[in-house]
């Protein structure tokens, strides 16, 4: 294809999970589609985030569970087998090879152009390929920007010279640093602190606010307690004022905090947020600002492009920065593009086929720490700020027979948010070992808008942790005296 100027119905920039799903769905709608990627097909999630990070965390979480099971404690004494953990991580990251992804694109009849793709005016994309050629692509119906995000670094002098870690260096690490500083309090920060502490690092966390600040407060509090019990030095109210590598840039990292304290470590990981990966994709050629997020309407169109051909899907639109949510958006956007290309009306009512309702009402997330955190829908505070009248129902998961079976001394907490007027579940948070498996039931309850009276007929098996749903219903009934 080098040197040619082919036309397609849809051109997709970025072949991470979002871009791949968008291309799959537009192709399934009968539209010719090409995808452009400058790195590995499968993107951040497959190679530097979800897959390798969970591979690093799984041994840590399994060992933590086993230590609380009578008869297993002695079997899991001693350190983790670090080479074996890294070998498993490498396998889960496909050894940073993407041949299987290329085969998959071919199987769904999506063309691929490897290289740096940029917009070059309305409906035009130019790609500079690795062999120095240039390919010019034209989109008849839509260009989908699925370029995702990159690490957002704080503005610190000479930071690059210290060779700081991002999620990429952490998840692809070839050694376990003796001392690791983690800057930040979000998901990447707590997960990597969990993983590297289990692998043997002495971990110091520098957190400006609290841990997991966008979730229910008890989630961050329980994760903080567990990290400290594991030996992590968690320091709140701290920002980084300066960073330098000693011994001419080859020695340890010296970190100065805003209160004048100093921490010395072998590596420093910045997990301080994400920035849109839009700095060099030609936004200026269509009147947009390079480096900005791309806000969209509820069909994922960028409204500033009045002709309606530009879509932004996944993290780059800043609606819900998670892989599974990007894939959800891609399914919606692909169906929208297909319908518009055929002149069909959109089914865009609440929970309709072309409506991104879950972006605001039912975003699920799991934090793979010890304990795990699983959440869907708004927190109690968010629901109230949105004008909902809600009832908050809490329950100690450790009282459930299934939790006692799962682990001795089980500590966990559940919170369900009920719309007190419509009497349906609008949000839920679970914290505790193994709670990730409670999340889909909560997501179904939220998206289906199931009345709590109907939930009484969803009988949880005994003895499982899912029996927490029954205890929540009982607590809710007893607290308000209703027929629930």
TrEMBL record:
All copies of domain FAD/NAD(P)-binding, residue ranges: 8-325
Keywords for the protein's UniProt record, in alphabetical order: FAD, Flavoprotein
InterPro entries listed in its UniProt record: FAD/NAD-bd_sf, FAD/NAD-binding_dom, FAD/NAD-linked_Rdtase_dimer_sf, Pyr_nuc-diS_OxRdtase, Pyr_nucl-diS_OxRdtase_dimer
Cofactor(s) required for function per UniProt: FAD
Segments forming a coiled coil: none
Database matches in Gene3D superfamilies: 3.30.390.30, FAD/NAD(P)-binding domain
Residue stretches making up the Pyridine nucleotide-disulphide oxidoreductase dimerisation domain: 363-469
Protein family membership: Belongs to the class-I pyridine nucleotide-disulfide oxidoreductase family.
Protein name listed in UniProt: NAD(P)/FAD-dependent oxidoreductase
Source species of the chain: Streptomyces tunisiensis
Upper classification of the organism: Bacteria, Bacillati, Actinomycetota, Actinomycetes, Kitasatosporales
């Amino acid at each position: 294809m080098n040197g040619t100027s082919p036309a397609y119905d849809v051109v997709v920039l970025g072949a991470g999970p979002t871009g791949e799903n968008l291309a799959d769905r537009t192709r399934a709608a009968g539209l010719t589609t090409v995808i452009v990627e400058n790195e590995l097909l499968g993107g951040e999630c497959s190679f530097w985030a979800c897959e390798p990070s969970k591979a690093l965390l799984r041994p840590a979480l399994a060992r933590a569970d086993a230590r609380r099971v009578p008869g297993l404690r002695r079997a899991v004494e001693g350190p983790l087998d670090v080479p074996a953990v890294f070998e498993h991580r490498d396998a889960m990251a496909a050894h940073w090879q993407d041949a299987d992804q290329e085969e998959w694109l071919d199987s769904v009849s999506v063309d691929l152009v490897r290289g740096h793709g940029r917009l070059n005016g309305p409906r035009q994309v130019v790609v500079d390929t690795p062999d120095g050629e240039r390919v010019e692509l034209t989109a008849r119906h839509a260009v989908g920007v699925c370029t995702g995000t990159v690490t957002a670094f704080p503005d610190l002098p000479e930071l690059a010279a210290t060779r700081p870690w991002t999620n990429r260096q952490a998840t692809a690490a070839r050694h376990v640093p003796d001392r690791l500083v983690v800057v930040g309090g979000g998901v990447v920060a707590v997960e990597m602190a969990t993983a590297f502490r289990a692998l043997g690092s002495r971990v110091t966390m520098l957190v400006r606010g609290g841990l997991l600040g966008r979730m229910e407060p008890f989630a961050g509090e329980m994760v903080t307690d567990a990290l400290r019990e594991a030996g992590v030095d968690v320091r709140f109210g701290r920002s980084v004022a300066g960073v330098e590598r000693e011994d001419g840039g080859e020695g340890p990292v010296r970190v100065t905090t805003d209160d004048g304290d100093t921490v010395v470590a072998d590596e420093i990981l910045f997990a301080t947020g994400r920035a849109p990966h839009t700095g060099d994709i030609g936004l200026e050629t269509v009147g947009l600002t390079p480096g900005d997020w791309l806000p969209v309407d509820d069909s994922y169109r960028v409204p500033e492009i009045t002709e309606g051909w530009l879509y932004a899907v996944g993290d780059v639109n800043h609606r819900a920065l998670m892989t599974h949510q990007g894939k959800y958006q891609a399914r919606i956007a692909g169906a929208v593009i297909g319908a518009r290309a055929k002149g069909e009306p959109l089914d865009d009512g609440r929970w309709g086929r072309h409506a991104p309702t879950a972006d605001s009402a039912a975003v699920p997330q799991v934090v793979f720490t010890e304990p795990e955190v699983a959440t869907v829908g708004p927190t109690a505070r968010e629901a109230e700020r949105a004008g909902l009248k809600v009832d908050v129902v809490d329950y100690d998961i450790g009282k459930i027979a299934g939790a006692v079976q799962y682990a001795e001394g089980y500590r966990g907490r559940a919170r369900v948010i009920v719309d007190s007027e419509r009497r349906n579940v609008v949000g839920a948070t679970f914290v505790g070992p193994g709670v990730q498996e409670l999340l889909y039931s909560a997501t179904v309850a939220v998206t289906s808008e199931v009345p709590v009276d109907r939930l009484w007929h969803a009988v949880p098996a005994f003895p499982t942790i899912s029996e927490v749903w029954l205890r929540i219903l009982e607590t809710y009934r007893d607290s308000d005296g209703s027929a629930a």
